[in-house]
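To close the chapter, one final illustration. This time we ask the reader to focus less on the individual chains and more on the assembly as a whole: which components sit near each other, and how the overall shape emerges from the parts.
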Amino acid sequence: KAGVTQTPRYLIKTRGQQVTLSCSPISGHRSVSWYQQTPGQGLQFLFEYFSETQRNKGNFPGRFSGRQFSNSRSEMNVSTLELGDSALYLCASRLTGGIGELFFGEGSRLTVL
Amino acid sequence: ILNVEQSPQSLHVQEGDSTNFTCSFPSSNFYALHWYRWETAKSPEALFVMTLNGDEKKKGRISATLNTKEGYSYLYIKGSQPEDSATYLCAFYGDSWGKLQFGAGTQVVVTP
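The assembled structure is written out below.
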């Protein structure tokens, strides 16, 4: 059974650009959530999608957005990139919503120059 | 601002020794506590999902306890092995659907 797949794994952007990250969940999983990790910080919750609907959103500016497609694949987009957006972005899926364990991808490492 | 605190931030353990570390979380609006192990260059993997006060979970040499009334959980590693080297994360479900709050982690290094 394939795990959570994130693409691209590494990318470099410059300030002001935008970026789109993709996440394919485990087959059958309907919930996808996104987290940001920066040095010295724990994983910061960005948002969670379930059945194409955003169920919850973390404390991030509106430059961070996401969506989920009918096949449960998800994308997140960051517009007008800032240096502080450099981070590891992790996607996680689970079967349903609620409090169940998360299955993480390996992450997309974004560097903003 | 992290409502979930983990201590210590890091620890070094000799192979064969046992160790434990703490996760503190808000004692109100408790839904669940998760523990994850995150090895370098890999994805975080779930160890335990704990929901009830007094819960004790075990997986091999690793075990965890939960006290929801006072807001803490302990993770224990018995007879540490080099393959136990990883960052251990705890995460707390409070009052929001899907919003899992992670601690900063405890980095464990086991030396032979």
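The CA atoms of residues 7 and 22 of chain A lie 5 Å apart. Chain A touches chain B at residues 3-4, 31, 33, 35, 40-45, 48, 50, 55-56, 58, 90, 97-107 (CB under 8 Å). With these observations in hand, you are ready for the problems at the end of the chapter.
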